[in-house]
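Table 4 source record.
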Amino acid sequence: MNAVTGRLAVALFHTVHDLLRLKESMERQSVSVATVPVPRHLSSDCGHALQFASDQADTVRAQARAADVEIEGIHELES
């Protein structure tokens, strides 16, 4: 797991398979990501989320499109 620092965001997925596909793709691009439980105030069909620095949201969206992964939503986390 890479250390994710700064202002954080999470991407939610319908399946853990999509999460893992995008995580692998992001790590190949040297973007720091981490698999975390979905925060309690958010809901998801999948119990895990992909955490990343919020300034990487556009990169995450682009990589998801390239990897044909559907993201349920991206949410910035409050400090």
